[in-house]
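Subgroup meeting minutes
Present: P.N., E.W., G.H.
Scribe: E.W.

1. P.N. recapped why we're keeping a running log of single-chain structure predictions: easier to compare across weeks, and new members can see raw inputs and outputs side by side.
2. G.H. added today's entry (78 aa).
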Amino acid sequence: MLEGIHGHSKMTQCEILLAALKRGEKLTVLTALTDYGVYALSQRCTDLRRQGWNVVSEMITLPNGKRVAQYRFPQYPL
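Output recorded in log:
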């Protein structure tokens, strides 16, 4: 099978994010971009919600003091 960005097979961005969330990963815009090549994390999470997935978003504070949204499945607490 052909591989896409970052060595992933030709999966959609939603499929890539869904697999990461199912593994218990907590994603921010930066981690989605650097780890998976997904630019529009909030939009893809909205797509997953429309498909029936319960994606939780919370604001977290990074070590540098900036606040960003973090996305996860609810069975994987902070």
